[in-house]
Amino acid sequence: MRLLVGLSLLSLISPSICVPAANLRLRTETQVEQPLIKLKPQQSSSRELLSLDGLWKFALASGPNDTTTPWTAPLPKGLECPVPASYNDIFVDREIHDHVGWVYYQRDVIVPKGWSQERYLVRAESATHKGRIYVNDHLLAEHVGGYTPFEADITDYIAAGEKFRLTIAVNNELTHETIPPGEISIGKATGKRVQTYHHDFYNYAGLARSVWLYSVPRQHIQDITVVTDVAGADGLISYQIKVANGTTEQIKIEVIDEDGNLVANSSGVKGTVRIPSVKLWQPGAAYLYQFQASVVNSKGETVDTYSLATGVRTVKVSGHQFLINDKPFYFTGFGKHEDSAVRGKGHDQAYLVHDFQLLNWIGANSFRTSHYPYAEEVMDFADRHGIVVIDETPAVGLNIALLGLSDSDAKTFTPEAINNNTQAAHKQAIRELISRDKNHASVVMWSIANEPASHEDGAREYFEPLAKLTRQLDASRPITFANVGMATYKEDRISDLFDVSCLNRYFGWYSETGDLEEAEAALEEELLGWEKKFDRPIVMTEYGADTIAGLHSVFGFPWSEEFQTQMLAMYHRVFDRVGSMAGEQVWAFADFQTNLGIQRVDGNKKGVFTRDRKPKAAAHGLRARWTKMAGDILA
């Protein structure tokens, strides 16, 4: 099946809300769509960009509401918090670590005097899970969703050359109507607010990514959408440009290769450019053209220019094969997390480079952004280094009974749990993910959820509109979701809506624990069942076992390094016997922090690297397998 339908461009116009079937009895949708943030700010001849990263004043809200308006005055002296970083582990204070509700970041900012003829904005790359931007006493922007950017145009409030007080409020609360979902309870004895949630990673909060002050000309490139294809030896880039302030000026398009040569040009807000003898973006061998769009006025003067790194490649699903540039691609790699000691989910350039170095060392060619969009710097790095990405929304935890937080008979899709308002938030998460990441060559597939209760009543009514929306927004990539073990090929109700079977399975760990012979038989039966049901690729997006680094056993007991190695090897034997397998992504790349509890001792230990990125024995086994597979492909 060819998923790149002609050269149709992405449509980011939000469709009407689909009303679920009556038997779901979901609540009436009330959420208002948030504006989609388009292009990442960049420094150019027409734009300026200033980092606001560093130490900010920090304070907790005095109560569950923010009615005390602390942004109308400087925050009290004392606490300072780094940006970017999660705040939870920064301070030696249990109250801050466990805080549920609003916190405030604050600093003074000066708008450069030379920006008097420009428009200027404050942009936060993320705020987990709700953010507000205040300039002095004015609330200028509000955003729900913890992993995508939002911004405030401050031009009409602060003159160029003036100093202002910037306050960003962040709220970490999760409810059954947020993505991801959760619940807040009140302690009977203490009255303390306690957050619970359905996902197995810690609910780190704060400003975990960069904050920027940037300028753009009053008439400027607001958005670019590109879709690539190949015609013989030539590359095709179909594009659509959106210009702010309704300009009727000329749009000039130039495509520059990596040597700085002009290889194609065009004009207009919509069209297709042809690159003769194109150099393709390929896994492990990235090649990026600079797609440069400029606004030119009637005098022939360039008003604004935006340069978009663009890799020309095609993505298709054909039978059991996942094809990149018409060649079969087999995913090797991991599910990962943005997680490290002290900084939590805070983006860190050193960890970024080191993690990609480890991916290269171990022979991995891909990863999934489990279970939320990663920082844009990560996506840019994957583009430049030829790492393939399955890009996932924050929709994890749509399965009430999964982690034993509720009765095993609890239903997921009900008015009191995952309902129509949750679906509305989920739709917005899909819109924002695609709006932000649509132009990344590394992104080859959208994953719209992780381990939902796809076997339950109401699952199809909930997910069918979401799958339809994803295809409307981007017809150029396959779509998928990560299927949970309880939703077997016999029980699952939604997989026919998607293009690739992505499975998370833990035979030998959560079931058949420690008995790898029984686990091997169960795994093979499951995979063959999926293969018979659908003529399409299967990617194992999670498989693994908790492993304590340094724990050894001559018997290969669970939790030992030997067991992890043996369990992964068993899975690989089965994969090699199933013809429709198109990939294997181990859970997980590195150990990561989870919520406190008796089931986790200082976090999830399924990483093949420790949290500080030291290899366990299994890493060496994976390296031997994956580097050989890569060599066989090249041979």
From TrEMBL:
UniProt keywords, alphabetically: Glycosidase, Hydrolase, Signal
Signal listed as a keyword: yes
InterPro entries: Beta-gal/glucu_dom_sf (IPR036156), Galactose-bd-like_sf (IPR008979), GH (IPR017853), Glyco_hydro_2 (IPR006101), Glyco_hydro_2_AS (IPR023232), Glyco_hydro_2_cat (IPR006103), Glyco_hydro_2_CS (IPR023230), Glyco_hydro_2_N (IPR006104)
Molecular function via GO: beta-glucuronidase activity; carbohydrate binding
Enzyme Commission no: 3.2.1.31
TM region(s), chain numbering: none
Domain spans labelled Glycoside hydrolase family 2 immunoglobulin-like beta-sandwich: 220-313
Record's keyword annotation contains Hydrolase: yes
Glycosyl hydrolases family 2 sugar binding domain ranges (all copies): 51-217
UniProt cross-references to PANTHER family, sorted A to Z: BETA-GLUCURONIDASE
Sequence similarity: Belongs to the glycosyl hydrolase 2 family.
Protein name, UniProt field: Beta-glucuronidase
Originating species: Penicillium salamii
